[in-house]
Write a structure and sequence with these properties.
499 residues, alpha+beta, Purple Acid Phosphatase, chain A, domain 2, 3 domains, 13-stranded mixed beta sheet, seven-stranded mixed beta sheet, 27% helix, elongated
Amino acid sequence: MGERKVVSRKYALGIGVLCVVLVATVSGVLIEQNVNLQSQLSSDKSTINSLKSTMTQMNSTITNLEGQLSLDPNRIIDGFSIIQITDTQFLSDSYPTLYDDLTSWIADKADPLNLTMVIHTGDIVQNPTSTQDWKNASNAMITLFNNEVPYCWNAGNHDQINVNGTVGSGNPNGSWLGTNYPAFNVTMIRQKPYWVGDIFDGKNTAVQFAYRNYHFMIINIEYNANQTVLDWMQTLIKTNPNVNVIVATHDFLNGGGTYGTSKTADALWAINFEKLLDNYPSVFMTINGHAASSSPMAAFNKRVGGREEIFFNRQDLDKQQGAACARIYTFEMSEPSNAVVNVCTYQTLKNVGYLTDPQDQFSFTANLRRYSPSIISVLQGNDFLEANGRSVGFTKSATLEGFSQHGNALMFDNLTLNGVTSNFTVSAVGANILLNKYDPNSGIAYTVSGSGSQTFSTKTAPASVIIDGVAVPAGDGWSYKNGEVTVKIAISSVTINLT
């Protein structure tokens, strides 16, 4: 009996030890599994964080891509695009192939971008008197013309001929050679339906286009434009009140967010111009180049009231090849009263593709005006200026729907009387006058004061023409052909009675 108890105790002790070992083993396994699970959980958390970071990057990429509507040529957008190129002077002078590549790319992307206008904001050439520079520039830009891509421009300081021959010093009161070359020949381009006007041989130009019931006008102003040009611009704006206006200049905003450059004349002109634009809320956007690319950056934009002001110029970058860039402004028109304009920049040299820095990829909103035909009251003494500084002023009140100006010719749309008088008189000095539409029952007559040959577009033959106070028969001082009345030399005045 005693031996069995001893054996039982030994057996029980062995079982106890085995249980302890078993518990310890199981606990060790559980602890190891717990450690493994915690390690796996930590790894999973790291993976999740990594995925979140990837998703954030993807969202950022998607946002960027949404700002670049041109990336997918099959994407249908409710809107349109315009493109700015600028300061191509070094391309014209030394890298014409890059200039050709730039305009070829634009022509190729015109349809997928729904491109309505290309704007060159000046310094088309490096040397204003270099025929080779102008040939290179014209050869590149004529690609747009040949592919039916609308475009316009203004003259930069390197395009204006200075009296002392200094390259780049500019002279807004001087001439330029651009009009001698096909791509900038206004006589040829005036035939385009989008053309509104030009003065001083095409150094300043104006164009138009429409998207649905929203009309747009782009007015291009040369480097430090003189008062005649500024008056021309203001007349275009005032006589087209329901049109959304973009003003494109050569010099204005700079890369530091101030106006002009270190030159006193530049800064003074730009500051005064900014104050002038404040009078015209229909100007919702300005674009310009000119300022040095490194001063302090090659792009800048800021909001001034309801107007977005944008500077862009990469000419000095990439070994003076940086102008081979297209600045694209894509208008999302699903809500025109708060239209979103997505801005991106595509370079066509070396690392071809879109620039992704914040200065070259951003968005802004524009409160656009819906177009409706409007009647503008033309008061007595109101002047309409033409390229040589001459003016046409109404001596009695009249109304019109619109005004435009091609070269030395002034055009009035739907010109009628206010119903108060039976006729009115327009006094001018040497300006050609075109009446696109008029009221044939109002007894319209107008007088041109001064001497020289005059040309008028009247659509119908005049009832009589009075030269220097004497009624002159047709063929003996004036003639009518193809809708135009040509008056030979007059000493003091010409009166044309249409009815």
